[in-house]
From TrEMBL:
The keyword Oxidoreductase does not apply. Belongs to the peptidase A22B family. This is PA domain-containing protein. Residues 87-169 form the PA domain. It is found in: Endosome membrane. Keywords: Endosome, Glycoprotein, Hydrolase, Membrane, Protease, Signal, Transmembrane, Transmembrane helix. InterPro entries: PA_dom_sf, PA_domain, Peptidase_A22B_SPP, Preselin/SPP. It comes from Gossypium arboreum.
């Protein structure tokens, strides 16, 4: 592997590692069980997120999110069943002794520390509180559990922990001589959200468009290849690279190196996940998005503006650039810049998805899997990569590295931009359904290969592999979302489900149809050569006038070229050199 090829492999691996993230939702886990905090009688609630809606002087105000305790009464799930109760500040603030406040089914707010959580809850319950809000001394939430030797667990009021910043806001409300009331409830996430349907359509549609573009380009290159061979009269052109300019064919070594490079980049993301690093990723994403959007627009518009698409001008550092590319580039750059500036607004996901889809389609157009062998190695490595960094990494890093990077938990932002995402429209918790680019790119390489093979082999949709590969990918992604909802929103490695469906279908069909050897090795159907290799008796009929001798070596076998006209049809014949002396 030369240096240039190695650099390409590193760049592609870096791209895929940046974009290979699990299907997930970013609103947080609504229900979470923790084996490190075992249940026992009186302390057996699941950890749930709780909404704390506030009213100030009867006017609806801010809403905060906390986490319910392992002990106490379960939080109601429906807002209509949750009662509004007056909020009071505990005296003493830590509630480690009986409060001096006179409570009448009020919600009492206390500070964390100086005694056990259950002690605070028992004191609040004894003071006739209806619920207990514990303010953490940090910005994060903390799971409130029971000590193994605790016995005083007869607690019948709900207990919720709020982050430090929420406590500061609530205290300002209370100290401003305002009447503050709160409502506590934990709504359940719907089984299926329409966002997942649209995300599924986006992923499938992206692979569909990219596959047809890739197959059309491959067919055009094959036609041009045959035409050059058939029409050449005076010399034999080097056609091995016709139509392959700018393409990157992955080999088995590159596929294996993907795991190493992708893992290194993922670790780098995990360790360096900070505000400045996310900003750097935004810049890189914009550069890739501009290139992808520009490539797609030029390809679409070149059909209507063929003249300016085929007119070029030389630009320093960039070389020959078409006038059409110059025309669309300002729009693409402006689009990416506007998205980067306003990426935190509610509708910025639209721009992110447009740039992301254009980038994925462009990569699938440039990067090719040459045969099923390489595709199998690549997807198998990606399969193990996804499982390791989503599940196994918890044992080494005490958290899922892939999910932490995808959500941007350590960056203070919404995560890296290399994701397709759609807001969860009917989810009371909001958030986004997301899918990593890698969950589209990697299977998309195999699906695009299937359509290129079908077109070059002149197979119908039913007799080909593309339709079945697309169905398998769609089913695999669908199963991913089913698993995602069954796991209460926990991030899932999509390739865990997509790879067996897609690759398994391809291998099974290839074996059943007898095409597995060709798919596995060359990856291209055996096409008839446009030249005619003449037999010995035909050669004897030739004369010196219609023979142009051009010797060249092909696999240690020498040929000469004969230009033959027969019934108004001209073609080139390749003649073994051993026959030349008989003419």
């Amino acid at each position: 592997m030369d240096l240039q090829s190695l650099c390409k492999v590193i760049l592609v691996s870096a791209l895929i590692s940046l974009v290979c993230h699990p299907c997930s939702v970013t609103a947080g886990d609504i229900v979470h069980d923790d084996d490190s905090a075992p249940k026992k009688p009186g302390c057996e609630n699941d950890f749930v997120l709780v909404k704390v809606q506030t009213w100030v002087n009867g006017i609806e105000d801010a809403e905060f999110v906390g986490v319910g305790a392992r002990f106490g009464t379960a939080i109601v799930s429906k807002e209509k069943n949750a009662n509004q109760r007056r909020l009071v500040l505990s005296d003493p603030r830590d509630c480690c002794s009986h409060p001096k406040n006179k409570l009448d089914n009020d919600v009492i707010m206390v500070d964390r520390g100086h005694c056990k959580f259950t002690t605070k809850a028992n004191n609040a319950q004894a003071a006739n509180a209806s619920a207990l809000l514990i303010i953490n001394n940090q910005k994060e939430l903390y799971k409130m559990v029971c000590d193994p030797d605790e016995t005083d667990l007869d607690i019948h009021i709900p207990t919720v922990m709020l982050p430090q910043d929420a406590g500061v806001s609530l205290e300002k409300m209370l100290t401003s001589n305002s009447s503050v009331s709160v409502q506590l409830y934990s709504p359940k996430r719907p089984l299926v959200d329409i966002a997942e349907v649209f995300l599924w359509l986006m992923a499938v549609g992206t692979i569909l468009c990219a596959s047809y573009w890739s197959a059309w380009s491959a067919r055009e290159a094959a036609i041009e290849h045959d035409k050059l061979l058939k029409d050449a009269l005076d010399e034999i052109p080097d056609t091995r690279h016709v139509g392959s300019g700018g393409l990157l064919n992955i080999n088995t070594r590159s596929a294996v190196l993907f795991v190493v490079f992708a893992s290194c980049f993922l670790i780098m993301l995990y360790k360096l996940m900070a505000y400045w690093f996310v900003e750097l990723l935004v810049v890189l994403f914009c550069i890739g998005g501009v290139e992808g959007l520009q490539t797609c627009l030029v390809a679409l518009l070149s059909r209507w503006f063929k003249r300016i698409a085929e007119s070029y001008v030389k630009i320093p550092l960039f070389g020959a650039v078409s006038y059409l590319t110059l025309a669309v580039s300002p729009f693409c750059i402006a689009f990416a810049v506007v998205w980067a500036v306003y990426r935190n607004v509610s509708f910025a996901w639209i721009g992110q998805d447009i740039l992301g889809i254009a980038l994925i389609i462009t990569v699938l157009q440039i990067v090719h899997v040459p045969n099923l062998k390489v595709g199998t190695v690549l997807l198998s490595c990606a399969f193990l990569y996804d499982i390791f960094w989503v599940f196994v990494s918890k044992k080494l890093f005490h958290e899922s590295v892939m999910i932490v990077v995808a959500r941007g938990d350590k960056s203070g932002q919404d995560g890296i931009p290399m994701l397709l995402k759609i807001p969860r429209m009917f989810d009371p918790w909001g958030g986004y359904s997301i899918i990593g680019f890698g969950d589209i790119l990697l299977p998309g390489l195999l699906v695009a290969f299937s359509l290129r093979y079908d077109w070059l082999a002149n197979k119908s949709l039913r007799a080909g592999y593309f339709v079945w590969a697309m169905i398998a990918y769609g089913l695999g992604l669908l199963v991913t979302y089913v698993a995602l909802n069954l796991m209460d929103g926990h991030g899932q490695p999509a390739l865990l489900y997509i790879v067996p469906f897609t690759l398994g279908t391809f291998l099974t069909l290839g074996r059943k149809r007898g095409d597995l050897r060709i798919l596995w090795t060359s990856g291209e159907p055996e096409r008839p050569c446009p030249h005619i290799l003449l037999e010995h008796q035909t050669i004897e009929e030739l004369n010196d006038e219609n023979i142009s001798i051009v010797e060249f070596e092909e696999n240690k076998l020498y040929f000469v070229v004969a230009n033959i006209s027969n019934e108004n049809e001209s073609y080139i014949a390749l003649l073994k050199r051993e026959h030349m002396f008989e003419l």
